[in-house]
């Protein structure tokens, strides 16, 4: 437990040092999407009986929590390949599970910070949504899933460039196709089947339902939790592979 | 304190260690000498839990480095060859995180940081970000960090590589001081004078094998006391002599340029392997 907190504290210290830059950087994409899609394209558009802005913001929350949780992989890779701090963790008497837990917690923290920023932007835009317990549970599960995926992949890649490739192939397509900007139900049936395989599709649906004050499907929570636990176990198994 | 039995390590196509056997005694300053790629860092990585051996066993303070890895790691402090400090964090924060990773309580961490920063003469830089420090200062922070949890064995992997001669000597004084306080030190280096100045015993490593192991004095005495370097037919040749008189007699017949000097560990390594230790 103390090992996990040490790893987590280090990530928090790094985040604190770069908080202003990080906050600005985390706000740029959601702001651009809100302006371009929400105010520009979506003006006067109704989706599922709500304004496009109301539809879009929960999607952006799902997307940003995914991106920021996954971004812990970059921090790990900088520490591993550039500063070589991973050696310091490996030489310490801490279990692999403590290391993975610390990094996953750091990923979740980053994601929650990004979500808080979007909520502030939403409030400033005059969009009122329900940020209830169901909402936060879905956000945390989504962040947990993608932070676990990030830690696992960060242990497997051999360079920082490999990490960028994985982001391009997995995260970017999911960000656009996982129900962030449009309802997946409007896609052709074959596309719906494919998109329903993406965890972000379920996260976006669940977060959106909760934010609209509806009761989200329990199956979506179970799916996110199950997949998250599976990826967490995989991340744990991958730590030894990072050793020579 | 350190026991290594038939230790081997393969990296896909390269056999980095080929059945090493070694015993380092408690409180000893032991130097592990060899050219780049001879297996020095690989040995340290296995002993400190950063790499798995392919075959053989290794123990630090009685703990098996693979089967009892967490206990074994608690016994070790590591100063790796490459700088691996958190550049975004301050000196104090780097040491504090290390203390947390080694499960030190807050009160002990605070006291130990004060003590170590005074020890490495960096008390005034405690709140400086690491990125603002010079190479020599960073190395001293790394030594302080490795000593944070009061390890029984300190592993120094090429601790002075890339440092200027003045800073190098300062690090040597620090290493001597640490050993005088009772720590066992396992030092890898390819600087001959570093091993000669610091080590009580030296192992020569070549191509993954230990080719000689003894005190520097005994190793050098195998060749003689004086070494005469001379150019013969365009090639440098070195002749060894037991006494100055013997060397002088030989010099009496000399006509070309020559250098008469004391035998050093480089001569021993060259005699054993036919290679130079340095880069």
Helix content estimate of chain A: over 70%
Number of helices of chain B: 10
DSSP, total strands of chain B: 13
Main sheet summary of chain A: 2 strands, antiparallel
Sheet/helix structural class of chain B: alpha/beta
Tell me the distance between the termini of chain A. Answer: 25 Å
Sketch the topology of chain B as an H/E string, one letter per element: EEEHEEHEHHHEHEHEEHEEHEH
Shape assignment of chain A? globular
Multimeric state: heterodimer
Radius of gyration of chain B: 21 Å
Regions with little confidence, pLDDT below 50 for 5+ residues of chain B: none
Question: Which term fits the overall shape of chain B?
Answer: globular
Q: If you average the pLDDT of chain A, what whole number results?
A: 90
The biggest sheet of chain B, with number of strands, parallel, antiparallel or mixed sense and barrel status, is: 6 strands, mixed
Distance between the termini of chain B: 31 Å
Helix-strand sequence of chain A = HHEEHHHHHHHHH
Could you give the count of β-strands of chain A? Answer: 2
What is the strand arrangement across the widest sheet of chain B? 6-7-8-3-9-10
What does it look like?
The complex is a heterodimer of chains A (244) and B (279). In chain A, 78% of the residues lie in helices and 2% in strands. Chain A has 244 residues and is mainly alpha-helical. A two-stranded antiparallel sheet of chain A has the order 1-2. In chain A, strand 1 and strand 2 form a beta hairpin. The radius of gyration of chain A is 18 Å and the shape is globular. In chain A, 46% of the residues are buried. The model of chain A has no long low-confidence stretch (mean pLDDT 90). Chain B is α/β, with parallel strands linked by helices. Chain B contains ten helices and 13 strands. The mean pLDDT of chain B is 90. The chains are: A mainly alpha (244), B alpha/beta (279). At the A-B interface, helix 1 and helix 5 of A face helix 2 and helix 3 of B.
């Amino acid at each position: 437990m103390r090992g996990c907190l040490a790893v987590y504290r280090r990530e928090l210290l790094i985040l604190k040092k770069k908080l202003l830059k990080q906050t600005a950087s985390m706000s740029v994409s959601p702001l651009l999407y809100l302006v371009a899609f929400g105010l520009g394209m979506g003006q006067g558009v109704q989706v599922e009986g709500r304004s496009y802005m109301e539809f879009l913001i929960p999607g952006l929350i799902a997307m940003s929590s995914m991106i920021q949780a996954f971004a812990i992989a970059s921090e790990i890779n900088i520490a591993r390949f550039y500063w070589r701090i991973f050696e310091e963790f490996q030489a310490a008497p801490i279990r692999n599970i403590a290391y993975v837990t610390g990094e996953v917690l750091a990923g979740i923290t980053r994601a929650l910070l990004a979500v808080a920023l979007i909520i502030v932007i939403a409030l400033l835009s005059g969009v009122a949504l329900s940020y209830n317990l169901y909402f936060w549970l879905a956000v945390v599960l989504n962040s947990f899933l993608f932070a676990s995926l990030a830690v696992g992949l960060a242990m497997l890649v051999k360079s920082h460039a490999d990490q960028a490739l994985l982001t391009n192939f997995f995260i970017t397509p999911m960000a656009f196709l996982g129900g962030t900007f449009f309802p997946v139900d409007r896609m052709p049936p074959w596309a719906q089947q494919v998109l329903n395989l993406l965890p972000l599709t379920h996260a976006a649906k669940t977060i959106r339902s909760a934010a609209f004050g509806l009761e989200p499907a329990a199956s979506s929570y179970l799916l996110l939790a199950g997949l998250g636990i599976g990826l967490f176990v995989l991340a744990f198994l991958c730590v030894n592979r990072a050793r020579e | 304190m350190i026991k290594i039995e038939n230790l081997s390590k393969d990296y896909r196509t390269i056999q980095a260690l080929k059945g090493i056997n070694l015993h380092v005694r408690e409180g000893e300053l032991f130097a592990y000498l060899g050219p780049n790629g001879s297996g020095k860092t690989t040995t340290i990585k296995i002993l400190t839990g950063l790499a798995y051996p392919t075959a053989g066993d290794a123990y630090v303070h009685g703990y098996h480095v693979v089967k009892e890895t967490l206990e074994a790691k608690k016994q070790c402090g590591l100063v790796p060859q490459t700088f691996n400090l958190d550049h975004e964090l301050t000196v104090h924060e780097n040491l504090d995180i290390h203390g947390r990773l080694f499960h030190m309580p807050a009160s002990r961490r605070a006291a130990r940081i004060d003590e170590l920063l005074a020890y490495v003469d960096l008390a005034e830089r405690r709140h400086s970000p690491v990125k603002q420090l010079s190479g020599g200062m960073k190395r001293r922070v790394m030594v302080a960090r490795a000593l944070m949890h009061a390890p029984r064995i300190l592993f120094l992997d090429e601790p002075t590589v890339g440092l200027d001669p003045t800073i190098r000597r300062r690090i040597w004084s620090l290493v001597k001081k640490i050993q005088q306080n009772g720590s066992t030190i396992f030092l890898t280096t390819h600087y001959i004078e570093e091993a000669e100045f610091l080590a009580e015993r030296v192992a020569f490593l070549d191509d993954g094998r230990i080719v000689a192991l003894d005190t520097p004095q005994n190793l050098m005495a195998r060749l003689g006391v004086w070494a005469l370097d001379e150019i013969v037919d365009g090639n440098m040749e070195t002749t060894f002599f037991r006494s100055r008189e013997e060397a002088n007699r030989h010099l009496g017949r000399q006509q070309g340029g020559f250098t008469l000097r004391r035998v050093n560990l480089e001569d021993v390594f060259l005699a054993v392997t036919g290679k130079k230790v340095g880069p």
